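Lab meeting, item 3. Inverse folding demo.
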């Protein structure tokens, strides 16, 4: 149960947050001046006059961090609205699919639509607008949470994608975990209400048998299943499962959507055009996957490659560096400039144990002095007075022998963020590459990310994510604070989405067709 924070406790948390941001976050004043930053904190302090619950305090303090317009940084409500434990989550799964999980939502043009329906109610058509849930409207959600979220810089295309991702989370903050919700829907100008209840999990029928004899007909001799045959079958099943696990490890796997993270598909029988779809740069054995993909492209003599980064929120720098080494014709390349940090000890503020399972702490803790020494050796003060960390992505690298020599198209949208923007910025250096879609959610000229430093505010216990490195691509734009703009802007409608039409890819196919006929 939440207890009220006193005025002094709130002020202590605000001061703590201000101090940490200034200490950890590099390039703090890229999109806000120092005077503006200080004014916002002073103004908030002047409004703290009465005790508040941590949840109420969240709505006051979270806009401060959002105002610096560095999209990775955030404050979450995980303390004020506890996340279910593993045991609780398991019980909920056993009870069945919740009333929010039965739909896939899309935030589009300030409205929320159903784009996938897993419920038993087939009368709820795809493209149906969600007017309200338990009398809470999307407009109310937007008004309440918009100030607490941000993108990098001045562009706004990331926001609808973020609202799509977090819509269920925001509703959870509002109504908690419920077994039923009252939806108000709108379809073809008709308003109707539906109570969506938790969908019970279907029980699989199990047949218990001890039979080891099979007899198809009375006329045939009974077939006895030997122990050797059983062992052989078990071995075959084991090998099959291992192959599935290996494939998921290699390409990465989205458990929720049951899709692979990295896929390569050909659009035609002669393999002249291929689509490399990468849903994120966080999963999969990227070195092995890209080696396999580009070896196949060379073997098939593929002429056109479509790199699909739509909805890709980013991930590992090593992943994009390895991918770029197959996409550049230059014999050598440098992905990032020197990586700026705030001080010599900045990297030591990064989470060290939080990404490691607790069972491994006893093994990892003794290695910390070695880790810390290496990090400090890699951080040096430059002549300009700033500190820089020697990141691998800032070094000159050779391109791969199997680099792609054909035509390249890149698909981007507002969901392209962080690492997917860094590689897109670098690809923009090649004027022959054509970008299709929507302005990216991340900025052209880099992002503050790399290594995360997580803190809980001392009194409210609100979880704060700050970031340590300023990642700047070597190829930049003169337009500060905006994303990578497409050469051909195409933004799908809600009708395109629900009917699985892909106007961006259709344009690319037509362009390839035109060029091949010339």
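The presenter then showed the designed sequence:
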């Amino acid at each position: 149960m939440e207890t009220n924070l006193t005025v002094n406790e709130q002020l202590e948390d605000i001061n703590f947050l201000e101090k940490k941001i200034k200490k950890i976050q590099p390039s703090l004043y890229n999109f806000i001046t120092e005077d503006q930053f200080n004014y916002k904190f002073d103004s908030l302090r002047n409004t703290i006059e009465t005790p508040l619950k941590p949840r109420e305090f969240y709505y006051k303090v979270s806009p401060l961090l959002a105002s610096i317009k560095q999209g990775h940084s955030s404050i979450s409500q995980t303390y004020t609205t506890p996340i279910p434990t593993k045991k609780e989550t398991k019980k909920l799964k056993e009870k069945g699919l919740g009333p929010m999980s039965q739909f896939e939502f899309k935030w589009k043009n300030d409205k929320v639509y159903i784009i996938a329906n897993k419920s038993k109610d087939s009368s709820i058509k795809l493209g149906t607008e969600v007017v309200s849930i338990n009398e809470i409207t999307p407009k109310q959600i937007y008004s309440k949470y918009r100030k607490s979220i941000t993108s990098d810089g001045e562009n706004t295309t990331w926001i609808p994608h973020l609202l799509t991702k977090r819509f269920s989370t925001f509703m959870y903050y509002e109504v908690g975990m419920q077994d039923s919700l009252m939806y108000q829907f709108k379809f073809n100008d008709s308003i109707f209400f539906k109570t969506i209840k938790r969908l019970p999990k279907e029980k699989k029928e199990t047949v218990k048998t001890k039979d080891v004899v099979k007899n198809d007909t009375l006329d045939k001799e009974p077939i006895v299943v030997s122990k050797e045959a059983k062992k052989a079958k078990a071995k075959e099943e084991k090998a099959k499962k291992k192959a599935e696990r290996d494939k998921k490890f290699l390409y990465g796997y989205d458990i929720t959507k049951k899709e692979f993270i990295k896929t390569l598909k050909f659009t035609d029988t002669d393999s002249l055009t291929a689509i490399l779809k990468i849903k994120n740069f966080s999963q999969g054995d990227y070195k092995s996957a890209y080696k396999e993909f580009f070896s196949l492209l060379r073997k098939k003599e593929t002429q056109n490659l479509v790199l699909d980064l739509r909805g890709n929120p980013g991930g590992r720098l090593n992943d994009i560096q390895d991918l770029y080494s197959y996409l550049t014709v230059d014999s050598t390349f440098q992905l990032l400039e020197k990586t700026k940090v705030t001080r010599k000890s900045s990297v030591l503020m990064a989470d060290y144990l939080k990404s490691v399972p607790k069972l491994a702490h006893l093994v990892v803790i003794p290695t910390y002095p070695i880790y810390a020494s290496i990090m400090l050796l890699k951080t040096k003060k430059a002549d300009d007075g700033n500190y820089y960390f020697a990141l691998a992505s800032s070094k000159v690298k050779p391109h791969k022998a199997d680099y792609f020599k054909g035509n390249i198209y890149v698909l981007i949208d507002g969901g392209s963020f962080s690492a997917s923007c860094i590689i897109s910025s670098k690809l923009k250096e090649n004027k022959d590459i054509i970008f299709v879609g929507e302005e990216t959610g991340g900025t052209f000229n880099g992002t503050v990310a790399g290594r995360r430093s997580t803190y809980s505010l001392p009194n409210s216990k609100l979880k704060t994510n700050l970031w340590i490195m300023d990642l700047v691509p070597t190829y930049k734009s003169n337009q500060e604070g905006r994303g990578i703009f497409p050469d051909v802007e195409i933004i799908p409608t809600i009708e395109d989405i629900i009917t699985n039409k892909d106007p961006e890819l259709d344009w690319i196919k037509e362009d390839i067709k035109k060029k091949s006929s010339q």
